[in-house]
């Protein structure tokens, strides 16, 4: 897991940011279907892309 958030829009922005750099991303929604304010969304990448993905996520937007 490279990124976790409760904000749906933020998870999708980070997913697109990584995909633009050629990194395959899986987004898993762990939110409760009855109460959307419980749970989080998580982004996963392959192990060989983890360091690059963390760098891109932590890097300020340019």
Structural class: alpha+beta
Output the CATH class name.
Alpha Beta
CATH architecture, by name, is 2-Layer Sandwich
One letter per element, helices H and strands E, the order comes to EHEEH
Helix content: 25-40%
Low-confidence stretches: none
Binned strand content: 15-25%
Could you tell me the radius of gyration in angstroms? 12 Å
Silhouette: elongated
Largest sheet: 3 strands, antiparallel
CATH superfamily descriptor: Hypothetical protein rpa1041
Descriptive report:
This protein is of the alpha+beta class. The protein has a single domain (3-58), classed as Alpha-Beta Plaits, CATH 3.30.70. It has two helices and three strands; from the N terminus they run βαββα. It has helices at residues 8-20, 50-58, and strands at 3-5, 26-29, 41-44.
Short account of what is shown:
By secondary structure, the protein is of the alpha+beta class. It has one domain: 2-Layer Sandwich (Alpha-Beta Plaits), CATH 3.30.70.1530.
Write the layout of secondary structure elements.
Elements: E1 3-5, H1 8-20, E2 26-29, E3 41-44, H2 50-58
Antiparallel strand pairs: 1-3, 2-3
What features would you highlight for this structure?
62 residues, 3 strands, 35% helix, elongated
């Amino acid at each position: 897991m490279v990124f976790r958030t409760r904000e749906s829009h933020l998870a999708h922005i980070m997913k697109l940011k990584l995909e633009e750099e050629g990194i395959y991303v899986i987004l898993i929604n762990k939110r409760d279907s009855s109460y959307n304010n419980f749970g989080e969304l998580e982004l996963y990448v392959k192990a060989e892309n983890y360091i690059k993905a963390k760098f891109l996520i932590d890097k300020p937007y340019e």
